[in-house]
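Feature request, filed as a ticket because there's no other form

It would be nice if the structure record came with a short human-readable summary line next to the tokens. Right now we just get the raw output. Example of a typical job, pasted below so the devs can see what we mean:
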Amino acid sequence: MDTRGSRLSLVRGGAAQEFTVTLRNGNSADHRHLLVAFQMEVLVGEPGDRPGSGPGFLLERFDATSGAWRPAELRVANDTRPLSLYAGGGPLAREAVRVERYRLRATAGGPTGSTPVVVSFVDTDTDREAAAHVLLGHSTG
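Raw output as currently delivered:
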């Protein structure tokens, strides 16, 4: 994971902040479908905040082929999603490296608070994590 300042500090309705995820496959096997999955716990608003009026966050992935940002899934929940429910992902050959660009924005009506974004690496062919998940520090004010 690479961010400016080693964490995301978002402002509701403000600009998105970019970060990259670098995948390195040092295993003895190729991955046909390796998915980078994102989840964070529900943020509880500050006293006096009005309830949010929408999803709260917008996660996008940069598509180098088209040069455009595309929506990416950010699961906001306090439970764990079973790995068998994930689908998709791209190939990552043995000894290969892939860098993916993302950006996250807090919507104007979303909550404030702080909770890490859990970044998981799911092999959707085997319904297993290909590597240990990592945490991306995050706060929204």
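Something like this underneath would help us a lot:
The CA atoms of residues 40 and 140 lie 12 Å apart.
The radius of gyration is 16 Å.
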